[in-house]
Amino acid sequence: MERRKFMKKSALAGSALPLAGSFMSFNSQQNTNTKNSFNLKYAPHIGMFENHVGKDPIDQLNFMADLGFTAFEDNTMRKRDVALQEKMAKTMQDRGLEMGVFVAVFLKEGHVGSGDIGKREEFLAYCKQSVEVAKRVNAKWMTVVPGNVAPKISMGYQTVNVVETLKQASAIFEPHDLTMVLEPLNFFNHPGAFLTESPQAYEICKAVNSPSCKILFDIYHQQIQEGNLIPNMDACWDEIAYIQIGDNPGRAEPTSGEINYKNVLKFIDSKGYDGILGMEHKNSKPGKAGEQVVIEAYKEVDNFK
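User: That's the sequence. What structure does it adopt?
Assistant: Structure tokens below.
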């Protein structure tokens, strides 16, 4: 009897071994990504990898860090609940993620070209609010867009109005060592925007003459608006404080469009750029497979050395 019991237990144990092996194999297949060591500070955003880890922002931040990304940007951070801002800030600090831009003032909030004092005060109020958010999440840069062109007002006068507003905004940011980055937008996605080209942004930054007023060079926007990417970046390099990425057409990850990102990134690296490159684009393909395409695309274009 004892021998029969022993044989039965042995048979059951033997039948369990293939199952255990299958389970281990299944688990190993769930995490196919190894931690990458990128040459530059690419910054994903919330939603970019949610098919891998779900919608929770904290889980997404941890996944970004697990992949080897060392930065993060969040356009909507100013509008998030304070408790979530604080929780995200702690996660970023714990995981070594540097906070990139969030939007301080965008098109619908920033129509200051007209010289309307009420619009200027509204613009400056958003700037003051953004200081508190920046402190909370350890941000250094905030995106600012000075609205649309004002009808029936000469562009020269509009430029003066924008410069004066930005001088007052700089006075808000300077004591806190914060920088607003002006983002020129392309005519196709944002028809009627006041700020559209890098030379225009360069001229405005020189007129404001503040360390708190610099350029956000969005490669996607400027490929559409003006092209000639590397020479234009080089020409206004001393005023560029932040860069964003997106391929064209489609505004998706590098390698999905026409831009030679490997050469562009090689140029950026050659300038000694130590800032953040925001991944401000969609995924070209849906689902988890599309997210994997994004990861592989950055591994490919980062191999520029």
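Strands lie at 41-43, 71-72, 98-99, 102-105, 141-144, 179-182, 213-218, 240-244, 276-278.
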